[in-house]
Specification:
Distance between the termini: 40 Å
Number of helices: 0
Strand content: over 45%
Shape: globular
Structural class: mainly beta
Helix content: under 10%
Radius of gyration: 13 Å
């Protein structure tokens, strides 16, 4: 079972950057789809970005992060990354890496396994 472990969160100023990493704990076979979602108190879970390694690395982004965030996959290490630029206070949340059954459509509905998350705090 591919159990994600997230790292890389922290505190940054408005406009800053962070890179989150996701590594597998356990078996590390290539996933059909991997996603990053975030959640903060009082807000709904939001699917931020997803990538399909077996379909040429096709990527998917929410409108709120398009143009600022980039999801990537290092096939040699089988790790996933979320590069976050131009961060805003509203990006503050706990970010989770998840295995996803399919990237098609509303992929947030098809989450399988996710880690404990990594906290991102953006101050103004």
């Amino acid at each position: 079972q591919w159990q994600p472990v997230e790292s890389g969160g922290g505190s940054v100023q408005d406009g800053g950057s962070l890179t989150l990493s996701c590594a597998p704990s356990g078996s590390a076979y290539t996933q059909n789809c991997m996603g990053w979602f975030r959640q903060s108190p009082g807000k709904e879970r939001e699917g931020v970005a997803a990538i399909s390694p077996i379909y040429g690395g096709r990527t998917y982004y929410s409108d709120s992060v398009k143009g600022r965030f980039a999801i990537s996959h290092d096939s040699a290490k089988n790790r996933f990354y979320l590069q976050m630029n131009s961060l805003k206070p509203e990006d503050s949340a706990t970010y989770y890496c998840a295995t996803v059954r399919t990237c098609a459509g509303d992929w947030l509905r098809y989450l399988e396994n996710w880690g404990r998350g990594t906290l991102v705090t953006v101050s103004s």
